[in-house]
Amino acid sequence: APGTKVFGYTYTGGCFAEYVVAKKEHVFESKNLPAPEASTYGIAHMTAYESIVMTTEAAKHAGKTIYVAGAAGGVGHFAAQLAKLYGLKVIGSAGKELSLKLLHEMKLDHVIDYSKQNVVDEIMKITGGKGADIVYDSTYMQSSYDQSTRAVAKGGTFVRLGLEGQLSQTGAKDMTQEVVARGAKMLIGDASRYAAEPEKLAQSFERAVTWYGEGRLRPFITTTVAFDATKLQEAFEAFIRGEINVGKIVVKIAG
Question: Which CATH number does the domain 44-192 belong to among 3.30.360.10, 3.30.450.40, 3.40.50.720, 3.30.390.50?
Answer without folding.
Answer: 3.40.50.720
